[in-house]
Each structure stands twice: as structure tokens, then as C-alpha cells.
Amino acid sequence: xxxxxxxxxxxxxxxxxxxxxxxxxxxxxxxxxxxxxxxxxxxxxxxxxxxxxxxxxxxxxxxxxxxxxxxxxxxxxxxxxxxxxxxxxxxxxxxxxxxxxxxxxxxxxxxxxxxxxxxxxxxxxxxxxxxxxxxxxxxxxxxxxxxxxxxxxxxxxxxxx
Length: 161
Fold this sequence. Notes:
This protein has 161 residues and is α+β, with helices and mostly antiparallel strands. It has 7 helices and 4 strands, in the order αβββααβαααα.
């Protein structure tokens, strides 16, 4: 119902889902105006989970994964990318969602301002000094994330022209 506080209902729906114990990460749909087009209430193994609300620490430990603390943006996508790549699972609730708020402030606003027309650079994702400290496999993962980000940006440019 419009205006109703539904966080508890949404959170409990995710916790009751039978697939949840096998998932490393669970989250929600971000409504950017397309939520009415969604045909399924639940999806598994999705890369884009917004408002991640449940982390299965036991499953993340089994997969030997954790947040990349030095990423300045897309750290949620990075985590779900790693989960899926390592054979883990995600759960996305689409029967509840968060409304997209496009703001010029907060979140990654500093990184968005710096990237300019050239798009997101590796340095926008992570400071070079932090990147150099990563193990080779983690550097590869950050480069793969950067490739994914650039492909999304290029697709956005194509759609807007």
C-alpha cells in the first residue's frame, strides 16, 4: 500500500525464502521506473543486487570472499561478481524494492565528478596505492569490475544517443 512502511515485510520475506540458506548475499530490486515490468518475484544469481540486506557470513567464508574495503564504488557489484564466479549464489527479491533516488550528492558523488567524459578509470574505483597492495587475483578482479563498469557506461551512452 502506498506510504506503508514495508521494510519489515520485505526483510521477513527474504528471510523466509527457502533458497536463502544457500545464498551468500541477498538483496532487493532498485526501482528506476521499470519495476512494473518485472515478471518474477525472485531471481537467483543476479549480479545487480541493490540494498544488500543479508550477508551469509558462513557461505562467504566458505567461498573465501569479503568486501573489497578499498573500492570507492561498485563494491556491492564486486562482491556479487565474486560470489557468482566462485560458484556461490545470490538471491534478489523483486516483490519489494527500493526507489532509485538520483542525487548529485552522497554515495560516490566525488568519484562521479572526477571521471568526466572519459568514463570511469581504474583509479576512480580504487586508489593506486591500495590497488598495488592487492594480491594478483584481486587485481584481476578489480580490472574485470572496471571492464564491466565501462561496458555499462558505453551502453548508457549508446542508449542516450
